[in-house]
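In full, the data.
>
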Amino acid sequence: MEVYKISRSLILWRHAHAGIGSDDYNRKLDERGKNEAKIMAKFLLKNKNPDLILCSTASRAIETLNALLEVDQLVSPVFDKNLYLAEPRTIINSIIKAADNQNTILLIAHNPGIHELSKSLTKNNKKKSLQDGFPTASMAFISMESEDWCNLGNNQLRLEKLIRPKDLNN
């Protein structure tokens, strides 16, 4: 009897570029950010279809998500206020709390937490340029060979690719 490993995918998407403002939580995407979000949303849908979408409740994260939902409604997103400027452990806890049997989870959140989480989860990130930063609207595609999302923080996962908007503009 063959044993099949279940591979789960986690896509970490940093919100697109936002304008400067004194009210950080309510900052909106600027024109650059709106363009970045559209480009990255189309790229995402050509590569993966998330079974679960987790999103910060900050305006710029929601606007980034909306660029995706304008292209395809996919699934109803889950909004989590704990993802606003969250540290890696908080992000992991949010994923574990919301996840069930989904194969692909998309998470839209903020730096520095999303970048730190990407680096700490993945064992092969040096080759994929995570060390160079995680610019706005970038996506890290991470795979996990486990049946249970509860193992997320306990494993070294594989960074499959890091895509930045500038990678798609050339």
About this structure: Residues 28 and 60 are 5 Å apart (CA to CA). The chain has one domain: 7-18+27-143.
